[in-house]
Amino acid sequence: MRVVFLDDVDGVARAGEIKNVADGYARNYLLPRKLAAAATTASMQQAEKRAKQLAVEQEKLDAAAQQLAGSMGGSPIVIMVKAGDEGRLFGSVTASDIAEAVNERAGTQLGHRQVSLPRPLREVGSYEIEVSLTRNVKAQVALQIKNENEPEPVAVAASTASASEAEAEDESEAEDAEEDEA
Question: Domains in the chain, please, with CATH?
Fold first, then answer.
């Protein structure tokens, strides 16, 4: 049966497309749910009009998503988790965890299905994750998984700087003492 799709049907067609589908599929699923209509002249004109409206709406969504993708490219998203001494997590970081962290940071309504994660992350480290903001816009998100029991590297760097300053002071005092003796 030849039908005009009135709405998007995942894996089958987008709104406005005209396709041949099985008679039973059309009669039992598409037509009762108003996802498609029989391909008549009037329904094809209606579908073309609807497809143009959806295309304009999609362009607006894509433009907003491009802006959001640009703002997400800055500093990495940090997720603090419990991990063992060797960096293995007690559990894992899933697509839901990543979506929640992105939503908190960017103020979006991202679902876990929009996060492209082939398998859960089970180790501490840095990762690049692909996120689908719309059907046409994808963004790369920098993700850092850190052990919540591990001290911050910034504190270590500060203490290292303090130690080197203390060594420099000790050396200058030793030089001053040598000059006084001479």
Answer: 2-63 (3.40.5.10), 73-151 (3.10.430.100)
